[in-house]
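Structure first, sequence second, as always.
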């Protein structure tokens, strides 16, 4: 029998009754930065932001989602531990670059004993490109008939997950949950009432140097990847082409990006974005459109999140190019009533916190 461990077994989660639940501290890790976030429960309002901060990582600590220097990351994490003196339990994201996400159909006769996990362990060597004995996986049931089950499966190399966990342990934290980044974003940006229905949605996390892509059916991931593209450099180049000069400072650049953005750009200027990002997303959408069945449906909506998603005109541009409804995410909608509480984090900046909001909500599923 393969020696596989589920994420739950690896982390040894603490189960608490509902009335004792408190939000865990959340960390969003990328190649460049670490974002810290904690929330508090405000009666009659919901979970509202309490403490939040972002720190840059030293060069090459994390590269392409792969943690290269455990001790260096731990030292950054200790800063937050010492400053905020929060609870030890944390929820963290794992990079989509290193995940393997897919669906699997199986006959109920294959699992007469009822042990789905054992069946996945048996099949996994055929499905992943590394030693299955070194894999950590989790699964969700997407669809069930009298004869079949359709599963969503997420797999990570065990050593990758253990390195991240060890960095947090060195900093004095206990990792309570570690999950696919786009799954955290989905939990935050898709309205709660729509998360349990048979609806296919896409999440785009538009960052500085990549676009995270996740496709979800009824709350479970069925596809995840990251498209490498220098988003920030693209907009800097676009500014120069449109204005005939470089921005005088960061403030001028960001004001332009969020007030004008792609609205006044032409086909030639948007060529790199189309070829580097739009074409790749279109291929993914076309693939799923060609593999529809009683489980999958057309992608009904694309949620834009991440620090660059609020660029003026970007949602309309994506919608026009992809021929799918695209909308800017509402990050706080599942945490608190925005009519009763206005956070200090403005709407544009909140789009950088979608992963953290989703990780915070993880404890209340």
């Amino acid at each position: 029998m393969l020696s596989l461990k589920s994420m739950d077994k690896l982390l040894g989660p603490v189960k608490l009754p509902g009335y004792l639940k408190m939000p865990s501290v959340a960390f969003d890790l990328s190649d460049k930065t670490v974002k810290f976030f904690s929330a508090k429960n405000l009666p009659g309002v919901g979970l509202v932001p309490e403490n939040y901060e972002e720190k840059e990582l030293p060069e090459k600590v994390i590269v392409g989602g792969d943690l290269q220097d455990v001790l260096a990351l731990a030292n950054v994490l200790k800063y937050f531990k010492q400053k905020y003196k929060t609870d030890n339990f944390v929820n963290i994201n794992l990079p989509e670059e290193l995940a393997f996400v897919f669906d699997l159909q199986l006959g109920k006769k294959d699992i007469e004993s009822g042990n789905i996990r054992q069946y996945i362990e048996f099949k996994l060597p055929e499905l992943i490109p590394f030693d299955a004995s070194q894999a950590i996986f989790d699964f969700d049931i997407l669809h069930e008939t009298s004869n079949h089950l359709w599963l969503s499966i997420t797999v990570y190399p065990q050593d990758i997950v253990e390195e991240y966990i060890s960095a947090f342990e060195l900093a004095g934290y206990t990792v309570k949950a570690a999950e696919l980044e786009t799954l955290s974003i989905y939990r935050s940006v898709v309205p709660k009432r729509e998360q349990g229905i048979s609806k296919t949605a896409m999440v785009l996390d538009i960052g500085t140097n990549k676009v995270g892509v996740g496709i979800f059916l009824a709350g479970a991931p069925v596809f995840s990847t990251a498209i490498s593209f220098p988003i920030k450099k693209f907009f800097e180049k676009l500014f120069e082409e449109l204005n005939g000069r470089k921005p005088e400072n960061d403030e001028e650049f960001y004001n332009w990006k969020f007030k004008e953005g792609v609205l006044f750009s032409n086909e030639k200027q948007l060529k790199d974005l189309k070829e580097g990002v739009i074409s790749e997303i279109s291929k993914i959408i076309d693939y799923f459109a060609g593999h529809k069945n009683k489980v999958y449906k057309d992608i009904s909506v694309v949620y834009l999140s991440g620090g660059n998603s609020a660029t003026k005109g970007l949602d309309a541009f994506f919608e026009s190019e992809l021929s799918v409804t695209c909308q800017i995410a509402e990050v706080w909608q599942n945490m608190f009533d925005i009519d009763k509480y206005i956070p200090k984090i403005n709407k544009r900046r909140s789009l950088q916190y979608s992963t953290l909001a989703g990780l915070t909500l993880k404890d209340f599923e």
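Margin note: The radius of gyration is 21 Å.
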